[in-house]
Design brief:
The protein is of the alpha/beta class. The chain has a single domain (4-225), classed as Rossmann fold. It is built from nine helices and nine strands. The chain starts with a helix and ends with a strand.
Amino acid sequence: MLNMSNYYTKNLAAGRLKKCYDLAPGRVRQYLEAEIETVRARIKHGDHVLELGCGYGRVLAALQGETDNLFGIDLSVENLHFARHEFLSGHTVCLFAMDAYNLAFRTPLFDLVFCIQNGISAFGGEAGKLIREAIRVTRPGGTVFFSSYASKFWSQRLHWFKVQAVHGLIGEIDYECSGNGIIVCKDGFRATTFSPANFANLLNGLNCTGHVFEIDNSAVFCEIRV
């Protein structure tokens, strides 16, 4: 099976990744903004905030002004270079090339750690380990956030991916293999989701106290208080 982390770092990074979002239809743009607003509402001035899988800096740029202590990590050096020189130029954001499953921060440094836009699926690793790492670097009293797609958003999501495929950003969609929250492309690309039940089962297995909720009929959020 194709390693999705490699796909994002080699095939879908920097300018190509940005184009995916530039091509987003209006309803998808509404969903993307609703996710950002959900995170923004939890930030207090002075908080240290970390985004896991920050890509080309789309979300961090939108959060400028909420706090002076924004941090982002990504596996793709190309993403980070693009973010620093093309999208976050002039902004005070700390960016690091780092694996979200093995964070280099050795002590709890952050008041809010978040991974939205279905990163928990897109990263392709063990979800429990990802959440444990996020909790480990979060200060007591802080918050950890993960999100995925809501089932109600399936048709809009599939249409967005079809647009990306038409523009050659991902492979042709294999409609026979796609469904039930999973989009499969003929080049090996595979995008899954986490349902509310998936998040609840994950939290039970980790013995974490969390809150799972939906927003905008488009996104499922899992919020964990540390």
